[in-house]
Amino acid sequence: MIELTFIIGSLVFLAASALTSRPLYNYSMKNYSKRVSSKYGFSVSDLHYSYDQMIYFISLPTTLPYVRSATKEDLIIEQDYSSFFYPSLKGIRISLKQDGKSLNLAYLPIGNFRLPHLDKLQQEGRIDEEAYLKISTTKLLQAGTLQEVREEVYKQLQVGRY
Amino acid sequence: MSKLKTFILYIILAVVLSQTANLLRFRVSVLMNKLMITAASLILVQAFTFIFGSDHLKWTILLFIGIAGYSFNLKGGLAAAVLGFLIISLQTGSVELFLLPVYLLVGAGAGYAAHYLNHQKRDLHQWMNMLMKQSKHLQVFREVSTTMQSTLQQDLLLKVILTSVTAGHGLGFNRAMIFLSSSDLQSLKGVVGVGPMDVKRGYEVWEKISEDRLKLRDLIEHNFDSNFTDPELNSILQSLDIPFTEHNVFGQALSSQKPVIVNKIDRNDDSQVLIHELFQTDEFAVIPLINQGKNIGILLIDNIVNKRPITLSDTENILPLANQAAIALDHASLYERIEEMALRDGLTGLLNQRAFQNVLNEHFPFEGSGRGPLSLVIFDIDFFKVFNDKNGHLLGNEVLMKLARVIEESLRPGHFSFRFGGEEFVVLLPDTCLEGAGDIAEAIRWNVEKASFPGEETQPNGFLTVSMGTACTDHPDVTNKNELIDAADKALYKAKNAGRNIVVSYKEFVGID
């Protein structure tokens, strides 16, 4: 029983660490961003951003009938983290799930998610790359940003760029 | 305390420890983060020892060694093994040496496994990045090719090329400029550029694009809008005419047919100094635009805002796009020339019948169009058949060429002159009333009379003359294009009958009759 207690306790420790690491990582990024943004007098919610560097894996606009017929709600946005124990956001993946099948449509690496105001602060030497990454992670994970990314991908699939 | 209570207490402790570590470790550096979770595992082991005694420490310490190995790879695993052995020795008061190699083995195993997994993960990440980069370039190339194939308008092509090179979805350079070869291929003329003149302006434009949520279509439309492109940049660029020689970087790129990266300004090369001084750039790349050995122009790129160095890999990626652009620009230029040839008379260089129909359709005022009156002047050379019979057709052709020059010199911008056929000419005068058309026709007639033409002494009057008829859409009889031509033709006929070398207007002609 003693051995079992330790084994179960260890498993609980590992599982709890792994399961809560991502939400707590996000929470921590949010807190950090709040601190830095108030120091430099801006709000993360008001930051303008560009998802122009999103990488698409299919032609735009698409001619694939099952992609064209997809609705906005069929598009799934997933956050892509580096690991369970030491998570860092690598980017967001947009895929289409229809009839149980999944098709990768686009990927936005966090390094390609650029925010002009942060670019300016970085160029002025007020924030470093790490701070940039933390704030851009916070911005990318906001519900409004993710919704806009979904709408953007949908539009690109239907209309294309040019 | 009952066993169950102890069990529950220990589970709660495990949860509390993991959550406390998780709450704190993302606020610190990566190294501290790893140290904290490793330390938390050691605390869990120690708590177990505290509750259940040190009898189990020999094997429970493996949790700490394993997590240290996972977190810090081989070195961390080995260090944790030694530390674990010391802790056991201190806490149990006995040194059991056989444990050390076991711990070292576990630490090394965990460390190596973690190292291997991280290595695999890193490799996969690198592959992913590479594939995504290639996918992006392929996508840019595919989209730009499709767009280029859909147009022969040079202006649109230039916008597409510049946008694909500078936009975030594209190759993401801060600034791009296009120089096209002059018609004699002796120099390169600055045509159009996209990007800021300085860093501050660059960030302003960048912020504006993001703020307005501008899409690429908008960007293409606004590329030359002063809100997005520094007008100063284009003004300076368009004033540039760089000679094509082997001694400057432009010539080198074109003759070697390879991109040239300039990362240090060579003071011996005037073109590099010029670009550096005019555009405040210390590093740029010159990409040749070549189609089937023909020098089409140069694409110049730089990163004035973020100062990102331009690499060989960058220029390699841009080459397929540049080659495609060169083909499209060459085709557009050839098309423009062929179109121009199709609309011009080969002998006189004036516009031809086909062009006349286009211009007439474009400027004829119809109800509600809001256009002003359109006047038409039609004229021919008096006794030209006699001239040809006496002097031959070759001299006749020379006269026609000279006459075309006299006509063009007599007109103002916005007027159109056409060779209508044989020795017959037409002038279309948008926004001109009949009186104004009469004045212009009289000016042409007078200029022809006083100009000197080869062989004109054989003409009945001893000099070359023209008879002219004018008509205007403001006359009530003129309701369509055919009636306008017909009215001017009738006036010309009247001028011929009235003794030639005069201008007769349709209004006057009606009055006479």
From TrEMBL, chain A:
Highest taxon above the source species: Bacteria
Protein name per Swiss-Prot or TrEMBL: Uncharacterized protein
Gene source species: Mesobacillus subterraneus
Automatic annotation (TrEMBL), chain B:
Provenance organism: Mesobacillus subterraneus
This protein's name: GGDEF domain-containing protein
Residue ranges occupied by any GGDEF domain in the UniProt entry: 372-508
SMART domains for this protein: GAF, GGDEF
InterPro entries in alphabetical order: Diguanylate_Cyclase, GAF, GAF-like_dom_sf, GGDEF_dom, Nucleotide_cyclase, Rev_trsase/Diguanyl_cyclase
PROSITE patterns: GGDEF
Higher taxonomy: Bacteria, Bacillati, Bacillota, Bacilli, Bacillales
Pfam families: GAF_2, GGDEF
GO biological process: cell adhesion involved in single-species biofilm formation; negative regulation of bacterial-type flagellum-dependent cell motility
NCBIfam families reported for this sequence: GGDEF
Transmembrane residue ranges: 35-54, 61-88, 100-118
Gene Ontology MF terms: diguanylate cyclase activity
A GO CC term assigned to this protein in UniProt: plasma membrane
Alphabetized UniProt keyword annotations: Membrane, Transmembrane, Transmembrane helix
